[in-house]
């Protein structure tokens, strides 16, 4: 298990970001999705918890086989997805990632938002007071992002909001900028497989850090798009974008219903106050199962006729020619 705490500041208030984070997640998911890969929204509905109150529950499937490093692709199925489940009780959220193909793998993220510059060292005392962890500050203006994700229009050093007048952030901006808020994220990565644990957990934390940096840069750079939205308007944007994203990656589910009215009372549906659990299974999902009534495929003919040795004829087998050379396996 590898535990880290990330702190990401933005020139916004916690109240403003309530709309911004919903807008950013939907638009970012849509942009990062393409046919066969991306984020499929399975469920998005109101949720009520006896401890945290009213919130929103979402379940997604993140298809990302081509984005894995070669050593990881070698040990996972071709059709590979991670299940994301999130409980949003803003300004507190719980997000977990699991994979039925890798039952010993999980990511657990608890997030809290406060109007400060990342100065609260006791924010996770109830969740991880006695747990050793590294605290990592992420600067949306000055930290480098992978070159393939860089856009000048989303660079806080160049972007300036027309509606708020904020932007063009410079080094040290967190010390003097107002308003300012911080997204505190407690991230636990587990991959309990001997020989791979350290390598995988470190790799996943690097990916998580890059995603947090890119996502928070976008949330601020898109502020003029969402700043005047109401909650009803951002929920409608969320619904329409999620349906478009599902179509984009080749999934055609029934229309996704998003409302602010709880579907079931908290006594029937409740999430744990921390570290929700997801039932894991080593069985392949139903769509990968081989139908029982499928006819068995023959790999060779039942009889083989050899050429007459008296005739000087060339033995021609399909797919093999005299010019063919042995193929060496392609190394990645």
Q: What is the helix/strand order?
A: EHEEHEEEHEEHHH
Mean pLDDT score: 80
Helix content: 10-25%
Q: Counting H and I runs of at least 4 residues, what is the number of helices?
A: 6
Shape: globular
Cα-to-Cα separation, first versus last residue: 29 Å
DSSP strand count? 8
How much strand? Answer: 15-25%
- Structural class from helices and strands? alpha+beta
Largest beta-sheet details? 8 strands, mixed
As a whole number of angstroms, the C-alpha radius of gyration is 25 Å
Biggest sheet: strands side by side, in what order? 2-3-4-5-6-8-1-7
Q: In oligomeric terms, what are we looking at?
A: single chain
Low-confidence stretches: 252-257, 259-270, 272-292, 296-306, 311-332
Can you characterise this structure?
InterPro entries: PI_transfer, PI_transfer_N, START-like_dom_sf. It comes from Canis lupus familiaris (Dog). Residues 322-332 have a biased composition (Basic and acidic residues). The structure is a single chain. The protein has 332 residues and is α+β, with helices and mostly antiparallel strands. The chain has an eight-stranded mixed β-sheet with strand order 2-3-4-5-6-8-1-7, covered by helices on one side. The chain is 22% helix and 22% strand. It has helices at residues 14-31, 70-73, 125-128, 197-221, 223-226, 231-248; strands spanning 2-10, 38-49, 53-63, 81-89, 92-98, 105-114, 134-138, 181-191.
């Amino acid at each position: 298990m590898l535990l880290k705490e990330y702190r990401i500041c933005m020139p916004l208030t916690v109240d403003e970001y309530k709309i911004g984070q919903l807008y950013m997640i939907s638009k970012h998911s849509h942009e990062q999705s393409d046919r066969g890969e991306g984020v499929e929204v399975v469920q998005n509905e109101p949720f009520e918890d006896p401890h945290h109150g009213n919130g929103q529950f979402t379940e997604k499937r993140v298809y990302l086989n081509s984005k894995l490093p070669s050593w990881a692709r070698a040990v996972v199925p071709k059709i590979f997805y991670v299940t994301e489940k999130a409980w949003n009780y803003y300004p507190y959220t719980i997000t977990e990632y699991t994979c039925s193909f890798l039952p010993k793998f999980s990511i657990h993220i608890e997030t809290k938002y406060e109007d400060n510059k990342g100065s609260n060292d006791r924010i996770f005392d109830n969740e991880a007071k006695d747990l050793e962890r590294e605290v990592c500050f992420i600067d949306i203006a000055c930290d480098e992002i992978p070159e393939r994700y860089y856009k000048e229009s989303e660079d806080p050093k160049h972007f300036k909001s027309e509606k708020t007048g904020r932007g063009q952030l410079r080094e040290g901006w967190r010390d003097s900028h107002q308003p300012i808020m911080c997204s505190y994220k407690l991230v636990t990565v587990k991959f309990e497989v001997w020989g791979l644990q350290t390598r995988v957990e470190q790799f996943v934390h690097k990916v998580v850090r890059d995603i947090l940096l890119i996502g928070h840069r976008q949330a601020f750079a898109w502020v003029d798009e969402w700043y005047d939205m109401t909650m009803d308007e951002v929920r409608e944007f969320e619904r329409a974008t999620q349906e478009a994203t599902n179509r984009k990656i080749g999934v055609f589910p029934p229309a996704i219903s998003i409302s602010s009215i709880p579907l079931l009372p908290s006594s029937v549906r409740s999430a744990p106050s921390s570290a929700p659990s997801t039932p894991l299974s080593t069985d392949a999902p139903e769509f990968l199962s081989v139908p029982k009534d499928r006819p068995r495929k023959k790999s060779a003919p039942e009889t083989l006729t050899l050429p007459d040795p008296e005739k000087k004829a060339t033995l021609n087998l399909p797919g093999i020619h005299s010019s063919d050379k042995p193929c060496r396996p392609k190394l990645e």
